[in-house]
């Protein structure tokens, strides 16, 4: 009897404990929000968007010339300042021309002497020709004189080549800039003896042509076919950005795709030409190259924060008129400046969730915390003229 009473007491205590536990669970349960899950949203807008490929590039001079002397002598004049802009044909360095001018004068004197000898030989040939017709001179003498005239003519031709060579040395003594460009640090001083030996010839100064200028950059080999296809429509625009990839430095056009893939990196080099009139690009400088393949007119754009990634690819939560959400598969063409260009899956004007997606599931009711009725939407900065390339 006592055992039965004890059993009832234990059962009552257990029931009381369960009732207290259930009440505590009910008190800890979060209150339900009948208005829906709070989220932030944006509206898909239409915008002209350039489709770009990025590559790390380096600025390369259009021409780099190591100026050397082709004659030997002492420097008598340095006619440039380091870092000076020069034009093709400007005098840079003058080497003492007197030995070469003397050789030129001597060659001219030899020519004058041989020309006089030729005149005399031609006069004798004319006399012998007349005497031969009257049989007053042997034919052998006439033939010998004719040979003498030919020899004198050849001698004069040789004299002329000697004059040309001497005149060329005089010209080489005045070292001029071969291209338009900027001079570097000079390697010689006034009075230095310059050697003309091809093996030991010293670089006097380097002239670098920077207008125009090149940017050489690389892209993965997987992108090359896209670039080749885009090139069929004309020149492709290339934008050079600074190392932060935020500021555009200059704009140019794609020149060529290298003729081989680098097997060690799986990349291909491309070269773009820039006018560089403002000298914003400098040889050796590293830049971020943006190759514009095409411009998508009125493309659908949403904030990149709205794009989610799942097992089946990218998707976005679209807010329907009844304030519930739909998980919509989308195709993202590219993401630039926190904006995603959508290839398919969304239409202009549709509302997408940009914050709070982790609490959502298909069909969930939402409460928009930035009411679009008051004008909250996707902030779009209009593209400046020239930032995109029309195909």
Provide structural commentary.
This protein has 391 residues and is α+β, with helices and mostly antiparallel strands. It is 27% helix and 37% strand. It contains 4 helices and 20 strands. The chain has helices spanning 2-28, 98-133, 139-172, 224-231; strands at residues 37-43, 45-67, 73-78, 85-86, 91-95, 174-176, 181-183, 193-194, 205-220, 237-241, 248-257, 267-274, 286-303, 308-310, 313-319, 325-329, 331-336, 339-344, 351-355, 366-368. Strands 1, 14, 15, 16, 19 and 20 form a 6-stranded mixed β-sheet that branches. The protein has a 6-stranded antiparallel beta barrel with strand order 2-9-12-11-10-13. The chain has a 4-stranded antiparallel β-sheet with strand order 6-5-3-8.
Question: What attributes does this structure have?
Answer:
single chain; alpha+beta; six-stranded antiparallel β-barrel; 4 helices; 37% strand; elongated; disordered C terminus
**What's the overall geometry?**
elongated
Distance between the termini: 99 Å
Note the run of SSEs as H and E: HEEEEEHHEEEEHEEEEEEEEEEE
Radius of gyration: 43 Å
Binned strand content:
35-45%
Percent of residues in helices? 25-40%
How many H/I helical runs?
4
**Average residue-wise pLDDT:** 85
Number of DSSP-assigned strands = 20
**Major sheet summary line:** 6 strands, mixed
Overall SS class: alpha+beta
Question: Regions with pLDDT < 50 over 5+ consecutive residues?
Answer: 1-11, 13-19, 21-32, 372-391
């Amino acid at each position: 009897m006592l055992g039965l009473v004890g059993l009832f007491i234990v059962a009552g205590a257990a029931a009381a404990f369960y009732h207290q536990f259930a009440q505590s669970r009910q008190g800890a349960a979060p209150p339900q929000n009948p208005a829906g899950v709070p989220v932030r949203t944006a509206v898909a807008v239409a915008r002209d968007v350039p489709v770009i490929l990025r590559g790390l590039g380096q600025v390369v001079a259009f021409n780099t010339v190591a100026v050397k002397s082709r004659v030997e002598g002492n420097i008598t004049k340095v006619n440039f300042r380091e870092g000076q802009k020069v034009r093709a044909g400007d005098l840079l360095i003058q080497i003492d021309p007197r030995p070469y001018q003397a050789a030129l004068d001597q060659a001219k004197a030899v020519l004058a002497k041989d020309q006089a000898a030729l005149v005399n030989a031609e006069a004798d040939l004319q006399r012998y020709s007349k005497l031969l017709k009257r049989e007053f001179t042997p034919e052998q003498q006439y033939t010998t004189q004719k040979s003498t005239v030919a020899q004198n003519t050849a001698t004069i031709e040789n004299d002329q080549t000697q004059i040309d060579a001497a005149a060329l040395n005089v010209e080489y003594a005045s070292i001029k800039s071969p291209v338009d460009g900027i001079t570097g640090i000079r390697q010689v001083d006034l009075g230095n003896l310059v050697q003309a030996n091809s093996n030991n010839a010293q670089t006097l100064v380097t002239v670098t042509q920077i207008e125009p200028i090149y940017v050489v950059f690389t892209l993965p080999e997987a992108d090359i076919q896209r670039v080749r296809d885009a090139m069929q429509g004309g020149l492709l625009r290339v934008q050079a950005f600074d190392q932060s990839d935020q500021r555009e430095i200059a704009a140019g056009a794609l020149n060529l795709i290298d003729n081989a893939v680098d097997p060690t990196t799986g990349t291909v080099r491309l070269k773009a030409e820039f006018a560089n009139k403002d000298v914003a690009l400098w040889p050796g400088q590293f830049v971020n190259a943006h190759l514009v393949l095409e411009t998508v007119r009125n493309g659908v754009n949403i904030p990149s924060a709205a794009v989610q990634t799942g097992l089946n690819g990218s998707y976005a939560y679209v807010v329907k008129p009844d304030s519930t959400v739909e998980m919509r598969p989308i195709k993202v063409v590219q993401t630039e400046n926190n904006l995603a260009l959508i290839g398919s899956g969304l239409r202009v004007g549709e509302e997408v969730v940009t914050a709070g997606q982790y609490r959502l599931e298909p069909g969930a009711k939402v409460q928009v915390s930035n009411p679009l009725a008051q004008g909250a939407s996707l902030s779009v900065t209009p593209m400046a003229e020239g930032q995109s390339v029309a195909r």
